[in-house]
Amino acid sequence: MNKKPLRIALFTSLYAPFLTGVSIAVHQRANWLLEQGHFVFLIHPQINEQYPESVGNRPMAGLSKLQFFPNFSSYAFPTKPLIFYKSLPQPLSYRHWSDTKLLQEFQPDIIMVEEAAQIRGFYSLFLQGYGRPIAREYAKLTGTPTVSLFHTDIVAYINYYLGDPIFRLIRPILPSLIKKFSENYDLNLFPSRGQLLKYQQMKSQRSEYLPYQGVNCKKFNPGNIACNPIPEDNRPTLLFVGRICAEKNVSQLFDIYKLVAAKISNVHMVIIGSGPLSEEIEERGKSLAPGLTVWGESHGEELLGWYARADIFVNPSVTENFCTTNTEALASGTPVVAAAAPSSSEQITHGENGLIAEANNSQDFANKIIQILENPELKQEMSRQARLGILEFDWSTCMEKLEEKLYGLFEESQKTEVRS
What we know:
Elements: E1 7-12, H1 21-35, E2 39-45, H2 53-56, H3 63-66, E3 72-77, E4 79-82, E5 85-91, H4 99-106, E6 110-114, H5 116-120, H6 136-142, E7 146-149, H7 154-170, H8 174-182, E8 187-190, H9 193-200, E9 207-209, E10 237-241, H10 252-261, E11 268-272, H11 278-286, E12 292-296, H12 300-309, E13 312-315, H13 324-331, E14 336-339, H14 344-347, E15 354-357, H15 362-373, H16 376-390, H17 395-419
Parallel strand pairs: 1-2, 1-6, 2-3, 6-7, 7-8, 8-9, 10-11, 10-13, 11-12, 13-14, 14-15
Antiparallel strand pairs: 4-5
């Protein structure tokens, strides 16, 4: 590295062993920054006895992988289970810990906050949470540049859970909330152009698109078929990987499977993941076995094998931003059939590396899946294009763009300091 290493304070609402796309991305981001020689202070949620035992026992890459870097340090902020989602964390309020004190001790060059809305308390409708903007006080005292990285489309989640009638009532106040929230940071980054446009229309300030949410194309690749979890099973396989929760539309997979199975009798659908609906999904899956398998969580080589083994990755979620599992499937050479969502077209070129289906339309999903399975030449070409089309979102490429952005903010802050 030719430039001076940065001292980066990285706040995150989610981290291992809490299993989400954010957790995985934050770990990869911290690891990459450390490999480049930067100093990283990771401020992450604490795991404690209030969470289900299964949460703490996950074989996820986490702190143990980072602690051998001499330029790494960390702090686990106190938490309790999220009021609406008991297996995910919510910070205790600022009365119990101080982000400002932590930052004064570390003295960062730049501050990144991943999923700042959850830390603040948006996810619990302000019934829980830190209660004030992370890093705002310290930034005002020191002029240190701050960056907020958006992951979740929180407005889509609010709409999904509260329903259209209530959402229409609160919709008028959302722009003022988003404007006030985004003004707390020098820069708000969105990994999806569609999400950026949506939030800019709702008055998000200092907001830009940056594809920081990539995929490790070396790790996820078609060669992982060597790790095939079901090597003796030659059935055409449909795969879903994600949280087993209402906003992911997991229940729709059962309807899709039945429609596809009526046309292709030996099709096999595999649902991988865990979440608040796990027991319900497992129970429903029993009636459709062995054609439908609810696998539970999968990690390591086994998960890599599933992605490469699948014939089609199926994602019916309508609340996705730049979906991690979509990119992992594509990097593995697996075509994707996904619901039309703001970022779907940024990952999937309809007819080339997959197909876009009408949201909440099981018949349309089934028709598109059948179209691919019944046309081997189309499937083969989509598999080839799946990998080629996602290379621009390779993890290192995305992180180099983010690193360049961080240096630009830091250098501008130094010029401002000199002028002052």
